[in-house]
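Researcher: Going back to the complex we discussed earlier. I've cleaned up the inputs and rechecked each line, so this should be the final set. Can you rerun the prediction on the complete assembly and write out the structure?
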Amino acid sequence: MPATTSDAVWRRLRRGLTPRASRAQAVTGLLCLLLGFGVATQVRSTQEADFSTLRQDELVQVLDQLANRADQLTAENAALEEEKAQLTDKRTQEEAAQQAAAQRAEVQGILAGTLAATGPGVLVTIEDPSGQVPAATLYLLVDELRNAGAEAISVGSVRVTAATWFADGDGGVVVDGVLLTPPYHWAAIGDSQTLQGALGIPGGALAAVRTAGGDSQVTVSGSITISVVKTVAEPQYATAIE
Amino acid sequence: MIAVIGLVAGVLIGLVTDVDVPQFLAPYLPIAVVAAIDALAGAMRAMLEGIFDDRVFVTSFISNVLVAAFIVFVGDQLGVGSQLSTAVVVVLGIRIFSNAAQIRRLLLKA
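Model: Rerun complete. Updated structure for the full complex:
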């Protein structure tokens, strides 16, 4: 057994690393060349990572994994599609609900007088130079217009709604707290022929106006715009029943 | 020194020449490479112990490579190729480690 002292070992290492034209060195170099070549080739083919170097069972395994993954993704896809359909459905419903709500808001806004309205109807001017026409007669006119199907009514600068009140005032009538003086300009949106017919009934509102000493003109118009709106206060005592 | 130069030259040749591993060699090349590394570690150790012999090195190098490849080949025929590959790699890995440990002890006395 040759010596294994530290000095001897290092001496051998130095001698081994010194290039010499010996057969041992040549053979070692050649085999190392082969090894380096093999390593490089193998590393490259591993990095290419195609399936050509895999064994059959490994390929089967890879195929299984792929099939599993595909199944998972298909299931996930189906779930997401379903969710999407639900969301779309929901959105459609919400849009319909919103549309219905907007329509309802419009209808109620016109009826409650909070929205400006336009449409066919009649314009009525009531002259009362002597100030003899009482508020009750004017209210009768409102009733008559409503009965004839008027959907929006205004007198002077006041929008007439379900809650509008009339009272005799100094030199005119007080409507919803606003003093109006003659002549009174009425506008009513509805079926103009019906409105005109209703106003012309003998013994009706306009007849009462004449009896009281006033005079009236009725104009039928294809397009009346009532831009006067009423601000509706929040109900103080009543709440809605759901 | 010539060994190191050979190793580097081999790597360069392998990288430069675009050689594809032939299909029938594909399962055996990695094992053969590991076996060759083991033979190289053994040779290094023998050189430091002063008992290096080029004939022993050549035969051990070649026989290591061939035996390793043969074991894997037999394993493939028996349907346990991947398991036997693992076994060969484990054994060769242990040998490489013990040779490396011996080299360290010889050089550093630790």
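Model: Worth noting: Residues 114 and 230 of chain A are 5 Å apart (CA to CA).
Researcher: Good, that matches what I expected from the previous run.
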